[in-house]
Amino acid sequence: MGLHGSQPNTLANLGWDIMSALASLKLTCVLLVALALLTLAGAWIPQASETDQTTLLLKFGTEGYALLSMLGLTDVFHSAVFLTITAALLVNLIACTSVRMVPRLTARINQCDFLDELAIKQLPVSQVIKVLSSTAELQSHMLSTMTQRGFKCKNSGNSFIFEKGRLGLLAAPMTHIGLLVLLLGVCTTALGGYRGNVFLTPGQSIAFPPDNSTKPRVGKMPAWSLHLDSTYKETYTSGEPKQWYSTLTLLDKSTKKLAHDTIWVNHPMNFHGVEFYQSDWSVRSVRLTLAGESQNIPVKDMGGESMGVLPLLPDVLLIVALHNPQDPARLYLKQQDSTMPRKFATLASGQTFQLGKLKITYEGATVVTGIQYKYDPGLPIIYTSFLFLMLGAMFVATPHLMLYANITASTANSSSLTLGHLSGKFRGLLNKEINRLETELTRSTEVTRC
User: Fold this and answer.
1) What is the DSSP string of 262-289?
2) Are strands 257-264 and 241-251 parallel, antiparallel or unpaired?
3) Which residues contact 179 (CB under 8 A, 6 or more apart)?
4) From the DSSP assignment, how many helices (H) and strands (E) are in the chain?
5) Closest residue by Cα to residue 359 from 371, 345, 341
6) Is 281 in contact with 370 (CB distance < 8 Å)?
7) Over the stretch 212-251, which tens digit does the pLDDT of each residue have?
8) Element (H, E) at 235
9) Helices 2-22 and 80-96 meet at what angle, rounded to 10?
10) What angle do CA 138, 142, 147 make, to 5 degrees?
11) From the CB of residue 240, how many other CB atoms can be counted at a distance below 10 Å?
12) What residue segments make up the domains of the chain, in order of their start?
């Protein structure tokens, strides 16, 4: 019987020991430092969901890229290390809440121990006020004054507790809960979220999931395809880019239209929590027909102009330049021994120019638009955490004040009021309340301060 009876207590003690170990503040500091270092690494190292493999290889080399990939640093926020540390911090905060926060908060909320005169004098801050009035009169004046000051009173005989700003007790718990919910949201996104970039030309479609997409650890990406109907650029009168627009259609496996919208920077298309953002836009190439043969000339942005070069002869270059895809293309010739190219034609799409025996037709430009997509299932949870954190910040501005008081009769017509408090955080405010009480008592009675 004794063995069986002690087993629940042993298990309870073991569980408490485990919770106490998990609630270690040293463990909290270690996990926070590790999480901060990983976050900094994710900010410094280009992430696979935001760039392509070629960029990473050029920056870090083959061996460096392989090492970073092995450590999970090319996709930090979806790596097993980041998830493990975040989950460990979540467990640590839950343990801290259970072991430290809840008992302390419960004790403060339920605190109702009345103190006698001797006990109040032993508090960190105490004061005795002698009043030339009976205990009944002093009690009446004191209660009236403290009630007007917003304090709630509890009493047991001649012992009193004055309290206000009880919401201030919730500042730390609300902040604690906010952090817990925030970590839960981060874990939810890291496990079920995904993101990536795609580059499309008008009329092109791409099926999900694209190769460069971060794959969710829980669940899978939808079997959609994204089609680019059209795209264009809007410019200022100075010629500088003003805005990029892309009209997108989202289709399911049976090519049924799921969503259709025109997006631009800071105006995404949203479908079932997946957001599609306009992230990039450029002219990829221009098409020329030379002597009946089609030539696709890659172009680069050169100070707002898209320019491409095609060798015609060993010492002669054909240069194509245009400002916008819909604008006419300007054609130049540059010889090796000359410093400046010579313009010889301006052609709209479909127009032809005869350069000696060479017939040149401008067929148009090919543009590419960059679309960033992301699915963040933890975002509503993260927004909820911000609500708790804001409430915690509001409650911090509500100081919790508690004063202990005791009245004793000195003579038939005189009494002693002993006041004191424990608070170090709000010592100044509580001392002001004591001084105000003394001032109010002075107006109605004769007071001697000790």
Assistant:
1) EEETTB-EEETTEEEEEEEEEEEEEEEE
2) antiparallel
3) 93, 385, 389
4) 10, 21
5) 345
6) yes
7) 677 888 888 898 999 999 998 888 877 778 899 999 999 9
8) strand 225-235
9) 120
10) 155
11) 8
12) 12-107, 117-165+399-449, 188-282+370-390, 283-365
CA pseudo-torsion sign 47, 48, 51, 53: positive
Vertex 395 angle, CA 394 and 399, to 5°:
125
Residue 446 has pLDDT above 60, yes or no: no
Q: Which two tokens stand for residue 200?
A: 């499309």
**Class level of CATH domain 117-165+399-449:** alpha beta
Single-letter amino acid, residue 346: T
Q: Quick check: 170 and 395 in contact, CB under 8 A?
A: yes
Residue 372, classified by CB atoms within 10 Å of its CB into exposed (0-12), middle (13-18) or buried (19+), is middle
C-beta separation of 24 from 100 below 8 A:
no
**Angle CA 54–57–61, to nearest 5:** 160
Q: pLDDT tens for residues 256-289?
A: 999 999 999 989 999 999 999 998 898 999 999 9
**Does pTM surpass 0.70?**
no
- By the 8 A CB rule, do 434 and 428 touch? no
Return d(Cα 238, Cα 241) in angstroms, integer. Answer: 9
As given in the structure block, the two tokens for residue 352 are 């032809």
- How far is 67 from 65, CA to CA, in rounded Å? 5
CATH (residue range 188-282+370-390): 2.60.98
Listed in sequence order, the residues at least 6 apart from 7 whose beta carbon sits closer than 8 Å to its beta carbon are none
Strand pairing class (125-131; 159-164): unpaired
